[in-house]
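Second attempt. The first submission of Protein kinase domain-containing protein had a stray character pasted in from the spreadsheet, which I only caught after the job came back as garbage. Lesson logged: always re-copy from the clean sequence file. Corrected sequence (501 aa) follows.
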Amino acid sequence: MSTEKVVNSVSTQPKKNLEGVYQQEFQRELDQVIRKVTNTALENNGYAAKAAKGGVTTVYALAQCWRAIDLETCSECLRHAASGLRKCAPGAEGKAMFSGCYMRYSTHRFFGPEAETEDNKGFSPWVIIGLASAGVACAVLGAIGTYISYKRFSKKKGLDDIPATRNNTSLNYMYGTLEKATDHFDESRKLGQGGAGTVFKGILPDGKVVAVKRLFFNTRQWVDQFFNEVNLISGIQHKNLVSLLGCSIEGPESLLVYEYVPNRSLDQILFVKNTINILSWSHRFNIICGTAEGLAYLHGGSGVKIIHRDIKSSNILLDENLNPKIADFGLACCVASDKSHVSTAIAGTLGYMAPEYLVRGQLTEKADVYAFGVLMLEIATGRKNNVFCERSSSTLYLVWKQYKAESIIQAIDSTLKGRFDEREASIVLRVGLLCTQSSVALRPTMSEVAQMLTDRRCVIPSPKQPPFLNASVLSPEDTMTSSFMGGSSALNDPRTQKPGT
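This time the job returned cleanly.
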């Protein structure tokens, strides 16, 4: 995974800035706590929270690597983050965010006592706060899932003594059957890999082709994710959702069995530029509409609100007719219809994550709407949303620029060479901007999005400027002022961002 810089957002309170001879001592304290959190995180599953008390003040720091990256990448990412964070001194507050990790320091305690890691003592990542705000548990599991998890850990056994799942023969697959189906998980059968596990192509004894997801259970978080996925998906059926066929809990690792989707993921077609596999506009529009319908179903069509949390191009699979199917529900959260959700650990992919969720851990279905808006713009423009890269502007910024210039059609993928429905294209781009509004209240629901895309009588509200990772949402508004790489005049123009200021 790349560790290119996303944000180096500095937030300062002028009265708290340290001056004169105290700056040197503050810098020493900061260096000390940065070294501590970096070293501890590498020994502690990618997470650490520390405090360094000196003669000037106490400096608090937190470091966290995204769970999908390996130790070497985590180390490299934290090294770059630490370097960027030191440039924030002598400010009382500093943040550095990369595409693989996050690091923050402050002269104010921004994490609870339970989150602080002790020297030479491991800390369980699943109790951490979502980027420094205390939260509540993520998954609201059903009774079966809770019972299974309890049995798994109270007995300290493997997963082979769980009657609730074993008795459900329609979902249960023998481990040996799936092992043979994937040719013992041979690399030649590998379809892809994510933070939760590796997916292999399998052929069952009856000739049926399936996708087998081999999960990694290094912590309890992965076990919860497995049961969350089984309980949520097995009862959900929709043409635009990947079907879960069953699972195996009797072998050395847990496996999920999905329907096989032959054309793999959208990103493998959309972002590979050649003259053979260019997606036509009709296919793109169909993918956008189908994904919108699938998300709308997740958000309430199945009788329960399910928030996916990781909508992105690589999680949209395409069948033989290039119809979309939403995949990877391992991050899904089931929540009450009248509740928002505060996550205990940020999960998702930078570039698609809504600002309020990325920073404060505030999770509602509108986080999926934001991610879908980014996805829409990527599909229409053929460009990845490069918010992490200092060398190019984000897709959101470029589309907004064309919208303000009243030439929004110019943002459409040039490889289409003008072969697209201009009215549909305009609708897609405007709805994409509407979905990526900084304010949660201004984003439509997915049901409204689906209607805007298919009902030409719908009136589409005029979008406001998207945040472009606006730092005004990167810190609590009532405690500090914010800047984004440069001064306040650079808040929404990524071309003016300068690190460490």
